[in-house]
């Protein structure tokens, strides 16, 4: 461990504060996340055997209010534990379990001002980085739908916004327009076609938020980052077991979780594919996810929600596109890039996917109607 690294310099201090059982025998960096610093800790138990934990230093540059973030996670996971137990499930494997400090807190703030937390490690699971089969995508849909179903009666308005306006498309659009107007690096003239594409769809940006304000859509507990790699699958059965990475759990619309999954999993190409001829919406995968998601939701969504799910898919894809394009105009200051024009390539793939969704809009709506009663 590099003690000069301020992110990890207080790891020993942090470890000593949590109520882990046994004697620590191993600690090592874990996973490939880019936001928090994550470590796997292995403890030997007095009675024999081992117990593993996940220790994380929360990135409070991105999550400005880590205490509120942890309140969300603790309240939601304790609620889920009760639901899972009542259904005869395994709460220690089917939701995250926060390990408290020796003083009974849900986090520890070290002497450098860093915030740490600990979870039980969920053993005998695998994490998939990309959709390997239609079954994987279907199982992920059922898992995210089930997450929505179990939290359907949770008072969403009591949760903190860990990132304000995270999926508020009108706010994202205003930020995009500001980036165009300021044109800090003089790049706007190079992407006039992409800017025009985004501006032409301004009216769409407020469709869902207007329905929410009018009381036609309910406020929900949403995950807001529904990528496949935020699900743990059972190692043997490959059944979707547990939704992880709950940092962005907050009030929102069911469309956010549905739409982000479609954007990520139902595209025929990579997010940064340069050959746009390879990018389209795979209607078969769209149907697969819609069926699984509504099955998992178990009738907890309203008819209006189901009718407007295609707009969730379109807006989450469009929103991501304008964020990539805005970042390109501002000098690539937010999203990590690995080549010149990387964020522009990403924006173009999202816009191509949006255009293909528009061309297939009637089919998307019919698929929703087909599974409306699930």
Draw up the topology in text:
Elements: H1 11-15, E1 23-29, E2 37-44, E3 50-58, H2 66-86, H3 91-94, E4 98-99, E5 108-109, E6 115-120, E7 125-127, H4 134-150, H5 169-182, H6 192-199, H7 207-213, E8 220-222, E9 231-234, E10 240-243, E11 250-252, H8 254-265, H9 283-297, H10 303-307, H11 309-330, H12 342-359, H13 361-370
Antiparallel strand pairs: 1-2, 2-3, 3-6, 4-6, 5-6, 7-9, 8-11, 9-10
Describe the 3D structure.
The protein has 374 residues and is α+β, with helices and mostly antiparallel strands. It is built from 13 helices and eleven strands. The protein has helices spanning 11-15, 66-86, 91-94, 134-150, 169-182, 192-199, 207-213, 254-265, 283-297, 303-307, 309-330, 342-359, 361-370, and strands at 23-29, 37-44, 50-58, 98-99, 108-109, 115-120, 125-127, 220-222, 231-234, 240-243, 250-252. The strands form three sheets. Strands 1, 2, 3, 4, 5 and 6 form a six-stranded antiparallel beta sheet that branches. A three-stranded antiparallel beta sheet has the order 7-9-10. Strands 8-11 form a two-stranded antiparallel sheet. It is globular, with a radius of gyration of 21 Å.
Q: What is the tally of helical segments?
A: 13
Give start-end ranges of low-pLDDT stretches: none
**What's the gyration radius in Å?**
21 Å
* Pattern of helices and strands: HEEEHHEEEEHHHHEEEEHHHHHH
Helix content: 40-55%
Structural class: alpha+beta
Mean pLDDT: 94
First-last Cα distance: 51 Å
**Total number of β-strand segments?**
11
Chain oligomer state? single chain
């Amino acid at each position: 461990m590099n003690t000069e690294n301020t992110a990890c310099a207080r790891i020993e201090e942090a470890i000593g504060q949590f109520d882990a059982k046994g004697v620590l025998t191993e600690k090592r960096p874990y996973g490939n996340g880019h936001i928090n610093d994550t470590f796997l800790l292995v403890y030997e138990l007095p009675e024999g055997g081992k117990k593993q934990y996940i220790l994380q230093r929360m990135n409070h540059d991105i999550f400005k209010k880590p205490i509120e973030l942890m309140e969300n996670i603790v309240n939601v996971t304790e609620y889920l534990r009760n639901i899972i137990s009542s259904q005869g499930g395994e709460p220690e494997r089917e939701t995250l379990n926060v390990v408290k400090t020796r003083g009974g807190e849900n986090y520890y703030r070290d002497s450098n001002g860093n915030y740490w937390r600990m979870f039980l490690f969920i053993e005998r699971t695998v994490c998939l980085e990309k959709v390997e089969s239609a079954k994987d995508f279907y199982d992920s849909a059922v898992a995210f739908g089930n997450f929505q179903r179990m939290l359907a009666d949770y008072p969403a308005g009591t949760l903190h916004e860990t990132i304000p306006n995270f999926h508020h498309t009108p706010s994202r659009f205003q930020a995009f327009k500001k980036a165009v107007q300021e044109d800090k690096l003089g790049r706007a003239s190079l992407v006039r076609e992409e800017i025009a594409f985004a501006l032409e769809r301004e009216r769409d940006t407020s469709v869902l938020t207007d329905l929410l304000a009018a009381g036609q859509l309910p406020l929900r507990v949403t995950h807001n980052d529904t990528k496949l790699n935020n699900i743990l699958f059972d190692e043997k059965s490959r059944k979707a077991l547990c939704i992880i990475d709950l940092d962005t759990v907050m009030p929102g619309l069911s469309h956010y979780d549905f739409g982000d999954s479609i954007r990520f999993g139902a595209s025929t190409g990579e997010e940064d594919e340069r050959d746009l001829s390879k990018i389209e919406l795979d209607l078969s995968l769209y149907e697969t996810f819609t069926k699984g998601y509504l099955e998992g939701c178990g009738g907890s969504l309203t008819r209006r929600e189901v009718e407007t799910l295609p707009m969730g898919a379109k807006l989450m894809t469009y929103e991501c596109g304008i964020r990539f394009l805005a970042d390109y105009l501002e000098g690539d200051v937010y999203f990590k890039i690995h080549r010149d024009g990387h964020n522009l390539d990403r924006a173009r793939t999202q816009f191509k996917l949006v255009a293909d969704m528009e061309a297939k809009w009637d089919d998307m709506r019919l698929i929703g109607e087909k599974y409306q009663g699930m």
